[in-house]
TrEMBL record:
Source domain of life: Bacteria
Organism the protein comes from: Caballeronia fortuita
Classification of source organism: Bacteria, Pseudomonadati, Pseudomonadota, Betaproteobacteria, Burkholderiales
Record key words, sorted: 2Fe-2S, Flavoprotein, Iron, Iron-sulfur, Metal-binding, Oxidoreductase
N-terminal signal peptide: none
Domain (FAD-binding FR-type) ranges: 15-117
Gene3D superfamilies: 3.10.20.30, Nucleotide-binding domain of ferredoxin-NADP reductase (FNR) module (3.40.50.80), Translation factors (2.40.30.10)
GO molecular function terms attached to this record: 2 iron, 2 sulfur cluster binding; metal ion binding; oxidoreductase activity
Keyword Iron-sulfur: yes
Domain 2Fe-2S ferredoxin-type: 252-335
Identification of the protein by name: Ferredoxin
Amino acid sequence: MSTQIKSNPVAGVQEQTLTLLVRQVRFEGRGINSYELVDPEGAPLPPFAAGAHLDIHLSGGVVRQYSICNAPRERHRYVIAVLRDERGRGGSKALHEQLRVQDIVRVSRPRNNFRLVEGARRVLLIAGGIGVTPLKAMAHQLDDAGIDYEMHYCAKDERSAAFAEEFEPMRASGRLHLHFDGGDPSAGLDIRDLLNAPADGEHVYYCGPGGFMKACAEAAQHWPAGTVHFEHFKAPERGSAEHAANDANDSFIVRVASTGQEIEVSKDQSIADALLEAGVTMETSCCAGLCGTCKVRYLEGEVEHNDCIMSDEERVEYLTACVSRATSKVLVLDL
Ligand code: FES
């Protein structure tokens, strides 16, 4: 297997990227292709757990994150599925247009911010649209582990739902429930009703578009702490309730704890950009608070987090340098 090593001298991190072969491209549903990536020599790939994603490096320096959707027991391949989003930032369109069978593609090793927690007695998986990808890997992992689960997959219609063939045994066994709303969410799955009464030891995982995420979050408010898990595949719009702006829009100072270097972060800059401009290496990938690549510990200061991945417990210790802002005048980073 061909690997490249990229060093991050500040964080002391060495990140390996993998060079993989596109072995198969499959039509999975309207606008959705899956891509099977394998080692060119047939070697086993680094292991992953359900919920992991890959950074895919496209031409022109474009890097995008996609969840791995096959079973973690499969060591010979990673499968990702990509919905072509005409209104997105261009990554999915580029991927659909550029990636062909037999192409070589550079990807990160699997990273995971959305793991199944251990000890659940029962698991509920709720997918909206292309948010099905990490949950599909979870369903495979739960199947293999013999853990009781139920999956709900919401899509506009049958043609927009991916993995019909692969999902058929799961549907036939009663594990998977498909919900088609014809484009009107109020005509689809009643999420509030589904999440009404959590069972003892039950955990819920959900992933989907903005409105779906909001509906799930509201419906799961009364679930016990630590039992609700989710992943955004797109950052919520700035200015939405989840990203209410405050005085964190002002400039502030970041101090590098190991050197004492002080760097001003202007109101138009991210912490990561300001660090890079000052010569401090900071690895980034999604630049949207989605992947965790730029996660860094802070030692002093008040933070407006803005990421979509960390729990409240993590936020006491860490921030994401691509989207977090300081609400104090100085922020000390453990770099
Ligand atoms: S670069 Fe992805 S969270 Fe910051």
